[in-house]
Design brief:
The complex is a heterodimer of chains A (544) and B (181). Chain A is mainly α. Chain A is built from 24 helices and six strands. In chain A, α4 (68-79) packs across α5 (83-110). The two termini of chain A are 59 Å apart. With 181 residues, chain B is an alpha+beta fold. Chain B has helices at 20-52, 177-180; strands at 64-68, 78-88, 91-103, 109-112, 124-126, 131-133, 140-141, 147-149, 158-164, 167-174. In chain B, the strands form three sheets. A four-stranded antiparallel sheet of chain B has the order 5-6-7-8, with no helix packed on it. A three-stranded antiparallel sheet of chain B has the order 1-10-9, with no helix packed on it. A three-stranded antiparallel sheet of chain B has the order 2-3-4, with no helix packed on it. Classes of the chains: A mainly alpha (544), B alpha+beta (181).
Chain lengths: 544, 181
């Protein structure tokens, strides 16, 4: 048996030379000083492979056009087993690869490993860093939620403002001021068709150059015998890769990546923010205004990249011990402080946007309320009940906490109590609530739904949903339509509306149903713009 | 880096080929294989689950009205066209679909799925010969769906049917009665 295996091996080796090639690769000689500080390159390559793998799996269930992109991603997240994990790996892997690539770069920089004859290796590495960031930029658009849409609007505008090249760049990105199918196709094409082969080519070149010049030795290494790459250094690389993967996997499992509401170009309240590793650029931009803006958006970043590429030609001194490279340490420290300061400033200046916090990738508690209960939230807020009552941990403690099951009565009791509090609870200081019976009924419906588990989620239900439900109820939509199992089936059920129709279609349909759906018996509704927006957002937020 | 747990001893002594060094070497090799196996499993198994598990099913009303059978001639198959909504991945689509419907002399109604049981081509009724003919590989079926000739492995598939007055409703596409039993 053993002899037969050896026979097969010999045959393959004779025809392909694969064994000697692998052996040559593994038994490469490396300097005696090699060790844990050199693992980052391998980790970066590994993370790139994870991105390629999870990216391909996501692409199997993804439609790269606006609208469909959003729905297909939602399908991956909610209906496919393991879909959330795949997206989590891809999302957090993208962040992690940026971190690891920068760490790799810092290590090479501190050790002066870019010095002669390794200048080309460094420069190829800088281009690989730029490619890594380009993935982040193009991939950001692909979920086609509000965050993606508005982030990309800003990006393409910046590209359009570049001196000389601006108009051409924005035409290349399909921008021309509008983000639509063309921009989407360009970004997707870049992300999955152009960038990966470019990365693989440069990665191979980078590794070839590393091999050609050998791993950079430290001063004093020439006196010591060389080591082999395998197995000791491979072991260290593997341990580092395993640690990185374990962290990535845990993040993908534990940290839920939100999917915001479908991209809405008419949303004027949205505050776009780039991915965290671009926040420093975003903040830099704020330091310049008027005609100087282009300095912050294009000129400075371009100069920084140029400087980075030219590092081996700026620092041409002899290789010295890493502990004596005080200037290099100072540069890294200054860069870290600058980056950290700008990022912190950007984070601090980001107002909390309740809309952005809504995760549409799975139904949360408030999305499953009936319109009636949702309307109750609107009245609960309008009457400012939290100024005396707490729900969950939020609100004052003048009156009883409304989440506690012990104070729950039936609806009839509550409505009597709302009208004349002292009749049901003698001596109470609660003022009567000036609402109609129907409105009090909604309020009671909401309070009956409240419990300790869902209190926070319901308290955080976005205002557009409460207001939208109010519009829904005022116009008696429930006499024909079904929402979350409540209502009638004369018209189509409204759950999953976002899958069937675009936002624009729905809004036009309210104004003139027959124009959009011939034969419809739905009357037309002339809604105020804000009501129309809230109602549509509300309907689009309903679970499928 | 000095002092690291895995780089015990002086780097200058590496790599010794024999003795104490070879057991450390074995540890390295074992750890390399072990860790890569763990990573591959953690990526590969969820990937298989993701690709092979069907999407979480949604329930929808399976019965669709496809037409009126009152004026159908007995034993003369008719192709009824109807619209149905279907969940197609992340979309709910409304599409045209057909069924071949046969009414027997005893007023029994059968609805056949529109695809040949051989390789899924669309077959049609040849009135002159009184058979269903599949144009791809010339499978022939009789009006009750049985294979008369050709490579088809089993009779035509049937829909669940029920009558609401003279309106025909179809449900799920089942195999033939023989296949169900």
């Amino acid at each position: 048996m053993r002899r037969r295996i050896r026979g097969v091996n010999n045959w393959v080796e004779h025809r392909t030379g694969i064994q000697s090639a692998v052996r040559q690769f593994l038994y490469e000689e490396i300097p005696a000083s090699s060790g844990w500080h050199q693992v980052f390159g391998s980790v970066a390559v590994f993370l790139f492979m994870v991105q390629a793998f999870t990216g391909a799996l996501l692409a199997f269930n993804y439609a790269p056009t606006p609208g469909d992109a959003y729905n297909s991603l939602r399908y991956i997240l909610t209906e496919l087993t393991g879909g959330r994990l795949m997206r989590g790996l891809h999302h957090w892997g993208a962040s992690m690869i940026v971190v690891v690539v920068v760490l790799h770069m810092v290590q090479v920089f501190l050790y002066g490993a870019y010095k002669k004859p390794r200048e080309a290796t460094w420069m190829v590495g800088v281009v690989l860093l730029l490619l890594t960031l380009a993935y982040g930029l193009t991939g950001y658009l692909l979920p086609w939620d509000n965050r993606a849409y508005w982030g990309t609007v800003v990006t393409t505008q910046i590209a359009g403002h570049a001196p000389l090249l601006g108009p051409y760049l924005s035409r290349l990105l399909g921008g021309e001021g509008e983000i639509g199918v063309v921009t989407f196709a360009r970004f997707y094409g870049l992300h999955v068709l152009l960038l990966p082969p470019a990365t693989i080519f440069l990665l191979v070149l980078h590794i070839f150059l590393v091999r050609k010049h050998g791993v950079a030795p430290l001063p004093g290494d020439e006196l010591k015998p060389k080591k082999k790459f395998y197995p000791r250094q491979v072991f260290k690389d593997t341990v580092a890769i395993f640690i990185a993967f374990a962290i990535l996997f845990m993040m993908a499992v534990a940290v839920r990546v939100p999917l915001e509401q479908l991209a809405d170009p008419t949303d004027t309240s949205y505050i776009p923010r780039p991915e965290w590793y671009f926040l420093f650029l975003f903040q830099t931009l704020k330091l310049f205004s008027g005609p100087l803006e282009v300095l912050g958006s294009v000129v400075l970043p371009a100069l920084a990249v140029l400087l980075l590429i030219l590092v081996p030609f700026i620092d041409r001194g002899q290789m010295v011990k890493v502990t004596r490279r005080t200037v290099a340490f100072a540069v890294v420290l200054l860069a870290a402080i600058g980056w950290g300061g700008l990022t912190a400033a950007a984070v601090r200046s980001t107002p909390k946007d309740p809309l952005a916090a809504v995760d549409y990738s799975g139904p949360t508690d408030w999305m499953q309320l009936s319109p009636e209960e949702m309307v109750g939230i609107a009245y609960f807020r309008k009457e400012n009940c939290v100024s005396c009552h707490a729900i969950g941990d939020q609100g004052a403690a003048v009156g009883p906490n409304l989440t506690k099951a012990s104070i729950h009565k039936d609806a009839a009791w509550m409505i009597q109590h709302f009208k004349r509090p002292s009749a049901m609870r003698p001596g109470t200081s609660m003022p009567p609530i000036q609402l109609t019976d129907a409105q009090l009924n909604s309020l009671a419906a909401f309070l009956l739904k409240l419990n300790e588990k869902n209190a926070t989620a319901l308290d955080n239900a976005p205002d557009f949903a409460a207001q939208g439900a109010l519009v829904y109820q005022t116009n008696r939509c429930g006499t024909c339509h079904l929402v979350n199992g409540g209502g009638m089936r004369i018209g189509p059920p409204l759950n999953g509306l976002s899958k069937r129709q675009s936002r624009g279609w729905v809004e036009d349909h309210f104004a003139d149903p027959r124009k959009m759906a011939p034969g419809s018996i739905m009357p037309s509704y002339k809604l105020a713009p804000k009501d129309l927006e809230n109602l549509t957002s509300y309907l689009f937020a309903l679970p499928d | 880096m000095k002092g690291s747990r895995f780089t015990m001893g002086n780097v200058q002594t590496v790599p010794p080929a024999q003795g104490e060094g070879s057991s450390r070497r074995n540890f390295y090799v074992l750890a390399i294989y072990g860790l890569w196996a763990a990573i591959s499993a953690a990526l590969g198994l969820p990937a298989l689950v993701y690709l092979l598990f069907p999407p979480k099913a949604k329930k929808s009303d399976p019965w669709i009205e496809i037409g009126d059978i009152e004026h159908m001639a007995p034993n003369s198959p008719v192709e009824l066209t109807y619209r149905r909504t279907r969940i197609d991945g992340w979309k709910v689509i409304s599409e045209k679909s057909t069924a071949w419907v046969v009414k027997t002399a005893a007023n029994q109604v059968t609805a056949f799925g529109p695809q040949c049981t051989h390789l899924g081509c669309a077959y049609h009724w040849e009135d002159a010969k009184g058979v269903f003919l599949c144009p791809c590989h010339t499978s022939l079926f009789s009006s009750d769906g049985k294979v008369v000739a050709g490579p088809a492995p089993r009779p035509l598939d049937r829909y669940q049917t029920k009558l609401n007055g003279t309106k025909l409703l179809i449900g799920k596409l089942l195999g033939t009665p023989e296949k169900q039993s």
